[in-house]
Amino acid sequence: MGLVSGIVVYFLIWWTALFCILPIGIRPDASGAETTGGWRGAPVGFSLWHKLAGTTLLATLLWLVVYWLSNQEWASFRDGWLAMPTR
Question: What backbone phi and psi angles, to 5 degrees, belong to 43?
């Protein structure tokens, strides 16, 4: 995996992980907009920095697995058991 393809794969994994992590631990404001001044469905105690840190950690771990798999001979589409048969 080259530098540019590694960055592109990391960005795609990070973006997907962000949408997986965003709904974790979110509770809507049940009392309504009168007490908090926000919308009725606005989350209570939302911390974007914790979500971004968790996303970065998860994306880095998943990217390392993808990078390791892409450098294995047995997982290669050119030489490994996944390779197309030659004539």
Answer: -70, 150
